[in-house]
Amino acid sequence: MVVEMQLVMEIAATVFASVGMAVDHGFTDLKVESTSVFDKGPVAYWLTIVANLVTWQFCFMGTAAMVFLTTSLTGGICSTALMAINVVGGVVVYGDEFGGVKVVSTVLCVWGFCSYLYGMYMKNKKLEKERGELVEMKEVVTQRLTQL
Question: Which UniProt key words apply to this protein (predicted)?
Fold first, then answer.
């Protein structure tokens, strides 16, 4: 059900954006941009557009699937990690400026992600210790029962 809802939202957003572009002659602007602005040529331009569309659809469907299979907290944490990767990728691949706002947002994303991972590590460590104590107690009770 979650994936179907995500799919319906994606289709609605695609239709809404396509109608808006058709009304505002945005598709004509894309054609002009592919031939005169994009320096790799029109084929590379359209392949970039299609690859970008497919990649984002996989990202959104993956996030919805993660929420469905785990929790919304896990989906949010992974989205936060993706934001930091997206900023760094833009700087590395496209040569964007890595100014103050991007630095702060990236540091906060990485900090939040690392805090979550550390918290889960400590929680799992505590659970393993408690389970180990339970196993030891079970062995002691079993030994005493066999002695009776």
Answer: Membrane, Transmembrane, Transmembrane helix, Transport
The mean pLDDT of 48-62, rounded to a whole number, is 86
Structural domain boundaries, residue 144? 71-148
119 and 142 co-located in one domain: yes
Please state the φ and ψ torsions of residue 88, each to the nearest 5 degrees.
-65, -40
> String of b and e for 36-51 (b: at least 16 CB within 10 Å)?
eeeeeeeeebeeeeee
What is the phi/psi pair of residue 28, to 5°? -65, -40
Task: Look at residues 52, 69, 86 and tell me which one is the last residue of a structural domain.
Answer: 69
Neighbours of 86 (CB within 10 A): 13
Give 77-96 pLDDT, tens digit per residue: 888 888 888 888 888 988 88
- Whether residue 131 sits in one domain with residue 108: yes
For residue 2, which of 77, 43, 61 has the smallest C-alpha distance?
61
Closest CA to 117 of 87, 81, 91: 81
Tally of domains in the chain: 2
Cα 29 to the chain's mean position, in Å?
31
